[in-house]
Design a protein that fits this description.
InterPro entries: ABC2_TM (IPR013525), ABC2_TM_bact-type (IPR047817), ABC_2_transport (IPR000412), Nod_factor_ABC_transporter (IPR051784). It is found in: Cell membrane; Membrane. One of its GO terms (molecular function) is ABC-type transporter activity. The protein is mostly helical and 254 residues long. It has one domain. The protein contains eleven helices and no strands.
Length: 254
């Protein structure tokens, strides 16, 4: 364990140094969700009825935008993994006396740090656009914990195409369905008026429960069963993605 922690910290520092030298990773991750937030709030916001008790559309919209930010950011995990594989970095590290799993954990932790920075930037833009919340410290910590779990789950999911893709475009393309998923959820509009099959899908996919939980925490409303459903989805995705990613890694470098 001491070797694993030291090796992971060293390799994470290597990956973070790449981001510091090339901050466009975070910039491009932030551009898409911020552009969506501007578009929906200032162009479509006035025509969207989010139901009683919703004073500001940016307040309603922000939780979904945060999840889109994460989905955009994890694509870079697959990108960086694929680049390291093509550059022979993994083979070079395989010949060194380091913990094998630390190479993957370094990429995952780098993704977590980069995504947290992106989320802070998006929340900052939302505040400039009028987002307000009376949520206390515990509510903010709960939101942060949920977003961290979601980020870790999607990042480990991104590891799989990063290890198996044949092209750079293939490694990054897996995130497109993840970015699209919030559009069929309660992220932008309530699910009440959706057609039957679409409504059923929207109400039974992970984004809706996560968005509803974050929205209720920001609004200081009871979260109900949504929080347990959201946690179950996040933990389930994390455990399944981690197991598949590690199995894929062992098969590739057995």
């Amino acid at each position: 364990m001491p070797n694993f922690a030291t090796d992971t910290a060293t390799l994470t520092g290597r990956s973070l140094s790449h981001i510091r030298r090339s901050p466009d990773t975070i910039i491009t991750t932030v551009i898409t969700p911020v552009a969506m937030m501007l578009l929906f709030v200032y162009v479509f916001g006035g025509a969207i009825d989010t139901g009683p008790g919703s004073d500001s559309y940016v307040d309603y919209l922000l939780p979904g935008i945060l999840l889109i930010t994460i989905a955009s950011g994890v694509a870079y995990t697959a990108y960086r993994l694929f680049t390291d594989l093509q550059g022979g970095i993994f083979e070079r590290f395989q010949s060194m006396p380091i913990a094998r799993s630390s190479m993957l954990w370094a990429h995952v932790l780098t993704s977590l740090v980069a995504n947290l920075v992106s989320l802070v930037v998006v929340v900052g833009v939302a505040l400039l656009m009028g987002f307000r919340t009376g949520a206390g410290v515990l509510a903010w910590l709960a939101v942060a914990g949920l977003l961290i779990l979601f980020t870790l789950g999607l990042t480990w999911l991104a590891v799989i195409p990063g290890l198996t893709a044949k092209t750079l475009d293939g490694a990054s393309a897996f995130s497109y369905p993840l970015i699209f998923l919030p559009f069929i959820s309660s992220a932008f509009v309530p699910t009440d008026n959706m057609p039957g099959p679409v409504r059923w899908f929207a109400e039974n996919q992970p984004v809706t429960s996560i968005v509803n939980t974050i929205r209720d925490l920001f609004a200081q409303q009871p979260v109900g069963n949504d929080v347990w459903i959201a946690l179950a989805w996040c933990v389930g995705i994390l455990v399944a993605a981690y197991a598949l990613a590690m199995a894929t890694y062992r098969r590739k470098f057995a």
